[in-house]
Design brief:
426 residues, alpha+beta, FAD/NAD(P)-binding domain, 2 domains, seven-stranded antiparallel sheet, five-stranded parallel sheet, 14 helices, elongated
Length: 426
């Protein structure tokens, strides 16, 4: 019997790898440690699954930071356009929303998993669930199989697509790191990315549950602005979250790990410059000169923020509009344009959307996703040291690297020789 290409992990990268390898004539065995594949896919995009983004190639790569150029080859071979063609061909309508984000038209991530599983099965991929790979087996620098439940399974090639170490309940428990380092690969230290941040500022507790839209958040490290993002922010019982925070969180985690001071400066009125905001305040105070300041500010701030604003500026909430001084008006304006939050930490890795760090891309051939260390070994998806902003970028990287790994393994290592008699197939 033909030795299979074994794919370890039934997430986005693993499913694409299995499907394209089988489509190109290989016998494929997909090993998934959970009871069913695609569990993490089912919770992405708050259960809606942000499949990809319509951004062009240059912008896409920029969202991955310094390692983004590694993805150029994979994206040239299989990018968002090809992914959407694939989904159309297997019966998954999609919609494009604000920011170029692409979702299944149904709004259900489970539909994505269903069509992908049906797709790989149509090419004869065998999916074995409840299968935890204990180790990779190599001989003289060549992968020859894997060990599952103390049984050796011979393989023509192995694709590791086990994901990172975030959301461990979905099966992403860092298995790929263990497997790869055991055969000589280097691991870039893993850490949370796209993760909520924590703060001990008293104001944060008063704002728990408040969501702000269309604000600008600037990240300051040791007093220097290093990054900023525009969009939505949510206050939590321990700090801050939301798309804006997740976008800059990777830089925050790295700065905190280095013992640096981290602050967020929020511009709550980015559409108004200082002059226009001052004019707005002056007009409101003149027109509503007999009303209390706390009521006047309702036209500019959410109700929950008004006590925080007045406490931090030191202005009595009972002050009437006509008695607000020019100095106090400046204090209000400056606070709205520069609300500072001290950041003291972040939520743990198991709450992060993705994992930063992973298998060093320097040890992977970007043209094939093949290991440069062990022949017949491939990597795809979040197990690699690749991470991007929110918006569908990370999932596209998983799909693209999985597709390239599957195609390369099928083209280079598909085996037509009989399996060894000692091979035990699940």
């Amino acid at each position: 019997m033909q030795k299979p290409i074994i794919v370890i992990g039934g997430g986005a990268a693993g499913i694409l790898a299995a499907g394209i390898a089988a489509q190109n004539g290989a016998r494929v065995l997909l090993l998934e440690k959970k009871k069913r594949p695609g569990l993490k896919l089912c919770i992405t995009g708050k259960g809606r699954c942000n499949l990809t983004n319509t951004a062009d190639l240059r912008e896409f790569i920029a969202h991955f930071g310094i390692n983004g150029r590694f993805l150029r080859q994979a994206f040239h071979r299989f990018f968002s356009t090809e992914l959407l063609v694939l989904f159309a061909s297997i019966g998954l309508p999609v919609v494009t929303e604000r920011g170029g984000r692409v979702f299944p038209a149904s709004g259900r991530a489970g539909d994505v998993v269903d069509v992908l599983v049906a797709w790989v099965k149509s090419f004869g991929v065998k999916i074995s669930t409840g299968a935890t790979v204990e180790r990779l087996v190599s001989d003289q620098g060549q992968i020859i199989g894997v060990v599952v439940n103390n049984n050796m399974i011979a393989a023509a090639a192995v694709i590791v697509a086990t994901g990172g170490a975030s959301y461990p309940d979905t099966g992403s428990t860092g298995d790929g790191y263990r497997l790869a380092t055991a055969v000589g690969h280097r691991l870039v230290p893993i850490r949370p990315a796209l993760v909520p941040l924590t703060s001990s500022d008293p104001a944060i507790l008063l704002l728990n549950g408040l969501q702000l839209k269309n604000i600008n958040a600037a990240l300051f490290v040791n007093g220097k602005k290093v990054r900023e993002a525009f969009g939505e922010l949510t206050f939590t019982d321990t700090g801050i979250s939301g798309p804006v925070i997740l976008t800059i969180s990777g830089a925050v985690v790295d700065a905190l790990n280095e013992g640096q001071k981290v602050e967020l400066h929020l511009d709550l009125k980015p559409a108004l410059d200082d002059k226009k905001l001052d004019a707005r305040l002056l007009r409101d105070f003149q027109q509503r000169h007999q009303e209390e300041l706390k009521n006047i500010l309702r036209g500019l701030l959410p109700m929950a923020m008004i006590p925080v604003c007045l406490a931090m500026t030191g202005i009595p909430d009972g002050r009437l509009g006509h008695s607000v001084t020019a100095v106090e008006r400046k204090q209000l304006r400056c606070w709205m344009k520069n609300f500072i939050i001290q950041v003291n930490g972040h939520r743990p890795l198991d709450e992060a959307i993705v994992t930063a760090g992973g298998i060093s891309v320097r040890e992977i051939d970007p043209r094939t996703m093949a290991s440069k260390i062990v022949d017949g070994l491939y990597f795809a998806g979040e197990v690699l040291d690749l991470q991007a902003d929110t918006g569908g970028f990370n999932l596209q990287a998983a799909f693209s690297t999985g597709w390239l790994a599957g195609l390369s393994a099928a083209t280079i290592h598909a085996d037509t020789r009989p399996s060894d008699d000692s091979t035990i197939n699940p």
